[in-house]
Design a protein that fits this description.
The N and C termini lie far apart (about 65 Å). α10 (about 265-275) packs across α11 (about 280-295). It contains eleven helices and 13 strands. The protein is of the alpha/beta class. It has one domain (about 10-295): Spore Coat Polysaccharide Biosynthesis Protein SpsA, Chain A, CATH 3.90.550. The strands form three sheets. Strands 5-4-1-6-11-8-12-10-9 form a nine-stranded mixed beta sheet. Strands 2-3 form a two-stranded antiparallel ribbon. A two-stranded antiparallel ribbon has the order 7-13. Helices cover about 30% and strands about 20% of the residues. The structure holds uridine 5'-triphosphate (UTP). Uridine 5'-triphosphate binds near residues 17 and 22.
């Protein structure tokens, strides 16, 4: 990673305290961040992306019934012994990949799911006076170089705040936070504004905010006093708009594909895309998909009800 005159980004915040209602009933007991995409939970993939970007400390903002998320990163000696005894080297390597070094994983509790802005604010004491990376883990990004690593490269040149941006079709801008940028066609641009879920006709661009941010710690002071906004939640976007009055925000149209795993179809698509891109599963997956391409979906797949 190149040298920079700006304070380096060494901490990442992962807000994982949401209720995952769009994913019910799968998330009745299991946190949505623990649902696997192909072979590993969504949260692990986000942590891997952070590691690649040079992040050294991992802050999870958790809520009730979310302990499985932190447990996933604990070393399990019995499991390791068992796999060693059976000579399962490949599996061992995969399991070790999910172990976290001592002292590097921290949690902050969000007692009530009051919104993303509030979840980020909960991490303020653990982040301190440093810039930090923020990951919305149910957005998964398939890219040659990880999205956050691309963003850190930009940050090291620009400083300030950096937001990953992704083009969406204009007719679905109402589903996203949308950026107003100085140069709509550029890979990098100064951000002039952002709007939460605008109607297509009002959207200032088609560049959506996808769930990867580098933010300066001053965001916490704003979040501290932030009133509830859309959906009666404390919105991160509202706080970023305020911070924009004092600090630069840069958008990066990153190289890669983004998948929204917070809802079912996006999650299924992510599984297909990540499986196809996986050296272990890709070739077999391609054959399977071909089999289903022209097959009419006639078999019923609804929850079965008792017939008696
Ligand atoms: P989402 O709105 O996508 O997550 O928030 P959610 O609330 O869990 O999902 P639905 O809408 O009920 O299906 C984006 C991220 O912010 C976290 C979520 O865990 C998710 O990773 N979040 C959201 C919090 O940590 N706390 C909150 O109060 C809200």
């Amino acid at each position: 990673m190149s040298d920079t005159k700006f304070k380096p980004v060494k901490k990442a915040v992962f807000p994982v305290a949401g209720l995952g209602t769009r994913f019910l009933p799968a998330t009745k007991v299991i946190p949505k961040e623990m649902i696997p995409v192909v072979d590993r939970p969504v949260i692990q993939r986000a942590v891997e992306e952070a590691r690649e970007a040079g992040i050294e400390e991992f802050i999870f903002v958790t809520g009730r019934r979310k302990s499985a998320i932190t447990e996933h990163f604990e070393i399990q000696p019995e499991l390791i012994e068992e796999l060693e005894a059976k000579g399962k080297e490949k599996l061992l390597e995969k399991v070790r990949h999910s172990d976290m070094e001592s002292g590097k994983l921290m949690t902050a509790k969000q007692q009530k799911a009051l919104g993303l802005g509030h979840a980020v604010w909960c991490a303020k004491d653990l982040v301190g006076d440093e810039p930090f990376a923020l990951f919305l883990v149910d957005v998964m990004i398939l890219a040659e170089q990880g999205c956050m690593a691309q963003m850190i490269d930009v940050y090291n040149k620009t400083g300030g705040n950096v937001i990953a941006a992704y083009d969406v079709p204009r007719d679905i801008t109402h589903k996203y936070g949308i950026l107003d940028v100085e140069d709509k066609a550029a890979e990098l641009s100064k951000i002039k504004g952002m709007v939460e879920k605008p109607k297509p006709e009002n959207a200032p661009s088609t560049l959506s905010i996808v769930g990867r941010y580098i933010l300066q710690p001053e965001i916490f002071d704003i979040l501290e006093n932030q009133k509830r906004g859309a959906g009666n939640e404390i919105q991160l976007t509202d706080a970023m708009v305020k911070l924009m009055a004092d600090q630069d925000f840069t958008s990066l149209r990153f190289k890669g594909e983004s998948y929204d795993c917070g809802h079912h179809v996006g999650f299924i698509e992510a599984n297909i895309a990540f499986a196809l891109a996986d050296p272990e599963f890709g070739p077999q997956m391609r054959e399977i998909l071909q089999k289903y391409q022209d097959r009419p979906g006639t078999t019923r797949n609804e929850p079965r009800k008792a017939t008696a």
